[in-house]
Design a protein that fits this description.
Blueprint (H helix, E strand, L loop, with lengths): L3 H7 L5 H12 L27 E10 L11 H9 L11 E9 L7 E9 L2
Parallel strand pairs: 1-2
Antiparallel strand pairs: 1-3
Length: 122
């Protein structure tokens, strides 16, 4: 636990309110890390994935008030969610075709992302 003197040594211009907050925060114990570090691995490895056996076509339609640059429409997270919920069996190129489009909101329409999934026989 930090003492008042240690805090003043580190922060010489600290006021009493700041010192008390540091002492209170230090006495609270360990703090949970709520953000996951950025990694290139998948969020989770799911075994025995089941989903449609045929080839899948997925269209992501971004509906926004201001259109984005094409490289800022990122469907990776949504595609992984489809895989984790077993709506699709995998996202390998031989299993899935992906199309990403966008359009402006109509008057009174809220921003959203529409995901359309089509299965076709190979």
């Amino acid at each position: 636990m930090a003492t008042r003197e240690q805090i003043l040594k580190r922060y010489p211009n600290a006021n009493e309110r700041f010192i008390q907050r540091v002492i209170d925060a230090d006495s609270a114990g360990p703090v949970a890390i709520v953000e996951r570090p950025a990694v290139s691995a998948p969020l989770e490895t799911v075994k025995n994935q089941k989903g449609p056996a045929g080839r899948i076509f997925i269209r992501f339609v971004s509906v926004r008030k201001r259109l984005l640059d094409p490289d800022n429409i990122c469907e990776k997270y949504l595609l992984d969610c489809l895989r984790y919920t077993r709506l699709i069996s995998g996202d390998e190129p031989e299993k899935v075709s992906i199309q990403t489009t966008q359009r402006k909101c109509q008057q009174g329409e809220s921003e959203k992302t529409i995901v359309e999934i089509y299965e076709f026989d190979t």
